[in-house]
UniProtKB/TrEMBL annotation:
Pfam families: Sda. SUPFAM superfamilies: Sporulation inhibitor Sda. It comes from Paenibacillus haidiansis. The lineage of its organism: Bacteria, Bacillati, Bacillota, Bacilli, Bacillales. One of its GO terms (molecular function) is protein kinase inhibitor activity. This is Sporulation histidine kinase inhibitor Sda. InterPro entries: Sda, Sda_sf. Keywords: Protein kinase inhibitor.
Amino acid sequence: MAMLTDELLLESYHMATLLDLDREFIALLLAEIHRRELITEPPVLH
């Protein structure tokens, strides 16, 4: 995850949710978003 830019991480999360990918994968992305304390539009819930 460290190799992803903030922008790419947020885009990956957005696409993963749109495509309804594996929940564990989405949770990993979301955990990294929270770890980096990124602000999202719209806000990420969970």
